[in-house]
Write a structure and sequence with these properties.
The chain has 7 helices and 26 strands.
């Protein structure tokens, strides 16, 4: 058995950076930037008002109250054609271009206008530059607003739109084929025969793939015979990765290694010193990367989070391990660990000091999907870790990682 870290490093070393494609901004959420995004405009394009009020010369309102003649107005999108001279003001609105001659904004709460003579009385002084957003405050044409290798969420899309960039170069989504195996499983909603159970792995891993920025291709369920495995595995032609679910262990009905081996599978490694997830395998089937997941639903999802998600991020040009591990306080005592790295389903809460506290559940069976669904994180126990007591710091893997968040 090899370590989790070695397995992940070997997987990442085998995966290529996917080519770029162009998408329109409206469909860019969750995509990974392949090229820098450069502003095509300056924002704001001119000095504009940050508030509703009056554009004035600061020297005219240094002493208050000051009575000024209102000579026009500048709403957003319309510039005042003239210039502000001594003793004059222009009614202005948020986003309105600051007229020539004006160098400060008096907010409308600090002024009183609307008299018959068109005058405005200013009751609060305004220093030069007050409530004025200078041209280029946000960015200027030619500025790099977003760097390649960044995931696009609502904030990034908003910035690209403001920079007048309607099309973006992004990495092609990794296409991942999912092949479940076993006579004992059926799809949700299908008739359940004697000694059969409902398959959850393929749908759960498909959701993980999509959340990580990939495209899932469901190849169906291969039965426990070589012909079925061979026929359905052929559907993975042209994808970036084949992920098999089940059949990766050493039983007589675990056919993945033997059948795909006959089809040219070159195995990179098999069996990892982790729990759950020990039987995970990785290799190449022709030109396609292949990851063999355990059949237990918790094991496959944990392996998906620890290995498949970073693999997809590598192909997208994103930092593979970013945000995957954090620190927390242990919420209950734990016995010493054995030679395998342990991933314990746990709840998260905050103590009186505001620290995250991870409390592993008492039952950790790898078939109990309900515990994983109700967990907030995985508490990580290194190989041969000594007994731990509540209050010690531990490493956790959060279970709330999603793509393209705001």
């Amino acid at each position: 058995m090899i370590s989790v870290r070695e397995a992940l490093d070997r997987i990442l070393a085998e995966l290529p950076l996917l080519p770029a494609e162009t998408v329109d901004l409206a469909h860019a959420r969750g995509r990974a930037l392949a090229e820098d995004v450069v502003a095509r405009v300056t924002q704001p394009p001119a000095d504009v008002s940050a508030m509703d009020g009056y554009a004035v010369r600061a020297e005219d309102v240094a002493k208050v109250p000051a009575r000024l003649s209102c000579i026009g107005e500048a709403p957003a999108g319309q510039a005042f054609a003239g210039a502000v001279g001594p003793g004059e003001a222009v009614r202005i609105f948020t986003g309105g271009p600051v007229p020539k001659g004006a160098d400060a904004i008096v907010i409308q709460e600090d002024a009183e206008g609307g008299g018959d003579d068109g005058a405005v009385v200013v009751r609060e002084a305004a220093a030069k530059g007050r409530y004025i957003r200078p041209a280029g405050l946000d960015f200027r044409a030619g500025d790099v607003g977003l760097r390649a290798g960044r995931l696009l969420g609502a904030r990034e899309i908003g910035l690209a739109a403001a920079m007048n960039v309607p099309w973006l170069a992004v990495r092609r989504r990794p296409r991942v084929a999912l092949l479940a195996t076993g006579d004992e499983i059926v799809r949700p909603g299908e008739p359940i025969g004697p000694n059969q159970i409902v398959s959850s792995n393929a749908l759960a891993l498909a959701a993980l793939v999509e959340a990580a920025g990939g495209e899932a291709v469901d190849l169906g369920i291969a039965r426990d015979d070589a012909a079925s495995v061979r026929r359905l595995a052929a559907g993975a032609a042209g994808v970036d990765m084949l992920v098999t679910l089940g059949g990766a262990s050493v039983g007589e009905h675990d056919l993945i290694r033997s059948v795909l081996g006959q089809e040219g599978l070159q195995l990179e490694f098999w069996q990892i010193a982790m729990r759950p997830g020990k039987p995970l395998m990785f290799g190449r089937l022709g030109g396609t990367a292949m990851m063999g997941m355990p059949g237990n639903p918790v094991s496959s999802l944990v392996c998906g989070l620890i290995f498949l998600r970073p693999a997809l991020r590598k192909m997208l040009g994103l930092p593979a391990d970013e945000g995957l591990r954090r620190s927390a306080v242990l919420g209950r005592d734990l016995v010493a660990n054995d030679r395998r790295e342990d991933y314990l389903r746990a709840s998260l809460a905050r103590n009186a000091e505001g620290e995250l506290v991870a409390t592993p559940f008492e039952k950790q069976d790898s078939s109990m999907l309900s515990h994983l669904a109700n967990a907030d994180c995985l508490a990580v126990r290194p190989p041969h870790a000594p007994a731990a007591t509540a209050g010690e710091r531990i490493e956790i893997v959060p279970l709330d990682v999603e793509v393209g968040a705001i």
